[in-house]
């Protein structure tokens, strides 16, 4: 076979291989796309449906409806869905959740005055009135007792409420006193212990520390560190020469 004939044969083989590789690549891409599309669904419109009916409808598509929150609504009956996410018509993967807000119907409660009550009593009263407890924030407030409700949201006597949750601001009482931590470095542990316990503080962990030329029971390390701010419940830990 001449050289030119051999080259033509090799060229035909290369061209055939290229075509086959291209066909295989296109086939693979098509298969992947079909596979992905085959595992997608369009989210149904469940707004206005009762929650149980929406869950059944979504389940037939391989989706799950989850109640993310509940709100009062004059537009929708109790247990009907007010809104959904993702929105209707969105292409999603099978198995994805649809988060919905469920109606509690028109508001039929008047928010009670819970300011001044203890946090526990306020929570019980709210639940008895058909409300729920939202977030509870705490703050140190001079002139108030610990666990006392200082403020609430929504305010007392509110009738036009959207959420059944009532949020509280609760007092932690007076701000505890703070002190500048003294240094006990170089002192003997028994002396430091007497000083601290006499002032109402506690000594916690004592860690032995090897050091030559230093008297036994000498403090060479401490926490809290000297000069830091401490409260009356501070516990002192020491490193002591053994």
Overall geometric form = flat
- Strand tally is 13
Strand content: 25-35%
Strand count, sense and barrel status of the largest sheet are:
3 strands, mixed
- Helix fraction by DSSP (H/I, runs of at least 4): 25-40%
Structural class: alpha/beta
Distance between the termini: 97 Å
Strand order of the largest sheet: 2-5-3
How do the helices and strands follow one another from N- to C-terminus? HEHEEEEHEEEEHEEEE
- What is the mean predicted local confidence, pLDDT? 86
Unreliable runs: none
Distinct helical segment count = 4
Radius of gyration in whole Å, from Cα? 36 Å
Question: Topology, pairings included?
Answer:
Layout: H1 3-38, E1 40-42, H2 51-59, E2 64-71, E3 81-85, E4 91-93, E5 97-103, H3 119-128, E6 132-139, E7 149-153, E8 165-171, E9 179-180, H4 189-198, E10 202-209, E11 219-223, E12 229-230, E13 235-241
Summed up, what is this model?
This protein has 242 residues and is an alpha/beta fold. The chain has 4 helices and 13 strands.
Structure description:
The N and C termini lie far apart (97 Å). The chain is flat, with a radius of gyration of 36 Å. The mean pLDDT is 86. With 242 residues, it is an alpha/beta fold. The chain has helices spanning 3-38, 51-59, 119-128, 189-198, and strands at 40-42, 64-71, 81-85, 91-93, 97-103, 132-139, 149-153, 165-171, 179-180, 202-209, 219-223, 229-230, 235-241. Helix content is 27%, strand content 29%. The strands form 5 sheets. A 3-stranded mixed beta sheet has the order 2-5-3. Strands 6-8-7 form a 3-stranded mixed beta sheet, covered by helices on one side. The protein has 4 helices and 13 strands.
């Amino acid at each position: 076979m001449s050289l030119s004939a051999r080259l033509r044969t090799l060229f035909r083989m290369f061209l055939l291989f290229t075509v086959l590789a291209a066909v295989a690549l296109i086939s693979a891409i098509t298969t992947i796309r079909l596979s992905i599309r085959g595992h997608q669904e369009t989210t149904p419109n469940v707004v206005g449906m009762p929650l149980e009916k929406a869950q059944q409808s979504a389940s037939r598509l391989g989706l799950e409806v989850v109640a993310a929150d509940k709100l009062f609504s004059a537009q929708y009956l109790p247990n009907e869905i007010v809104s959904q996410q993702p929105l209707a018509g969105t292409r999603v993967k099978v198995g994805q959740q649809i988060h919905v807000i469920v109606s509690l119907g028109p508001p039929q409660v008047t928010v009670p005055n819970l300011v001044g009550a203890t946090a526990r009593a306020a929570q019980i009263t709210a639940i008895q009135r058909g409300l729920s407890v939202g977030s509870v924030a705490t703050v140190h407030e001079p002139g108030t007792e610990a666990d006392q409700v200082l403020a609430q949201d929504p305010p007392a006597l509110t009738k036009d409420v959207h959420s059944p949750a009532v949020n509280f601001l609760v007092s932690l009482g007076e701000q505890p006193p703070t002190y500048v931590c003294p240094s006990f470095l170089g002192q003997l542990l028994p002396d430091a212990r007497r000083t601290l316990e006499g002032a109402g503080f506690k000594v916690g962990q004592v860690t032995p520390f090897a050091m030559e030329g230093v008297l036994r029971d000498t403090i060479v390390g401490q926490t809290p560190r000297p000069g830091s701010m401490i409260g009356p419940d501070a516990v002192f830990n020491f490193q002591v020469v053994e």
